[in-house]
Write the structure tokens for this entry.
Amino acid sequence: MSFSFSNATEVFIFIILCSVYVCSILWIYGDSATRDMGIKGAILPLVLVIAAALALTKGMTWALLAWPTGYIAWFFIRPKATHNIVE
Amino acid sequence: MLDILSKQHIVAKEGFNRWLIAPAALGIHLCIGSVYAWSLFNPSLIKRLGVVTSSADDWTLKSVVWVFTVAIVFLGLSAAVAGKWLEKVGPRMVGTVAACCWGGGFVIGGIGIMTGHLWLLYLGYGVVGGCGLGLGYVSPVSTLIRWFPDRRGMATGIAIMGFGGGAMIAKFMIEPFIKIFYKAPDYLGTVESVSLKTDESGRRLAEIAGNLQEVVIVGTNDIANMLVPGDVGVYVVGTGTVGVAEAFFTLGAIYFVIMLCAAFGYRVPSKDWKPKEWEPPTEDTQHEMISQHSVHIDEALKTPQFYQLWVVLCFNVTAGIGVLAVAKTMMNEIFGSTLPNIVDFGFASTYVLMISAFNMVGRFIWASASDYLGRRNTYWVFFTLGIILYCSIPYTAQQVSVNPSVVWLVYFYAATMIIFTMYGGGFATIPAYLADIFGTKFVGGIHGRLLTACASAGVFGPLAITSLREISVMNAINDLITKISPSDFQAKFGAGVEQLDQLVTAKTVTISKLMEIAPAGTVDPTSSLYNTTMYLMAVILFVALIANATMRPVNSKHHMKD
């Protein structure tokens, strides 16, 4: 099913999905910054940004699949150790 | 050399008047706020070669309109990236780089216009200038909040008011500059007096001194669209100048100087400075929403509060853009036909000016009011009042089509103006809300990242309006078709109903044209075209209301530790 924007519900769902994507990616950026991932921490979320954008252009089904997949994948690939940010 | 730009170099001396920061911040925001006046360049940019009217090789409106979108997207991206850098190097360095980017963006864009390279215009004004916008937008915010811990809302309201008012001031510079540098192309005479040819690509050519040269023809209907009034007739392409490149260079230089002066006016308070006779509020139940702890930029991204504020800002801006983009059209379409004696061209122009004025004033008033009401309560007002107003607009439109009374016009005017103050107020109050929730230490950087919400809203708002209006128009046309006899349709449009899609695409069939052959008593559906958009905006505001209502202080595990 692709986004045809043929009714208000579809436009609303698209706005919510895009918001969830942007917020998830910001969260991953924050998470990677507290895990000392260096350049990898900048590139991996960028891959998710591109995947998310591609999924959204493919339609709602792809978008609904790509987000949880990418989000869960992040929990597996991120370093386990985290650190506190101190002054 | 770079030392004079550093954060350490601009720590204010004892007794510094904190009110001097406000004009510096306002100066930068007034300059970058001129981005909203981009549409004033469009008529000139699409006549770069033809000057009096568009020639075959001139840029299309569609291609130049996107420059503005690129600039807004880069505003969000650069603010998100540079926020952390701002906290490290201080506002003067960021303000100076913003001046270079914004001024330099105009210069690069001007070169692009002069040489005919559209990509240079995108790179200059869109990318480089867009980065200047983002850097300039965030540069004074955290500094102001630190100088005015007792009036955070008012302080940020002053600066962000400038961003709303920049376009109003730019209008009085852009149009005169374009006229000063404008040079009309060579006039050959009337169409009848010149020997014209048309080549295979459709270009009009005239023979001048034995050579064929491309020309453009100005007809009677084109006079109103000329940048500077001229005669009807034939003009040689490439012999005049539209003045926009020169205007770009001049504006770039002016903005650079003002922003540089403003950046050098920045001072940061010393670490333990606070206003005289002011004590930070204690974290008791009365002030639980004003944190005395700081949350790091990266850590803030891991708190639910950041995303609640993201939703609050994004959806408030989306709803605002939703009505901002169609307000003038609504005024013309709904009231222009029902109350034509009042809603004329002059009325509509004043209405547009009032939109900018209320947007600007709302930024200062609402942000200042939030110091007394509390940030969460201010957004409560925005969303509850917003939902009521958005839901009432379709009712107003329906009533005026049935009973054309001036009362509905007054109501619509007042309702939209209140919506515009809240749109501006939402922008201006958010930095103070962030400072309350995450502390003042990294508020500039966190604010920068939150501006991704504005960039997203810049996509959502226009998307919602354009798609929903298109659906409403098609539904209205299909509904009208069922009431019109096929023979009347055939006689009016010279084609059958089965060709409706093609006729609509070619703009041959419109609602107003169908109303001319509709049976007497048929209600004009124009006034209801925006109903779905308004209801969707109300739903979006409801989501934002929930996000705001569930706002709680940040969990102490996210606070920075010494």
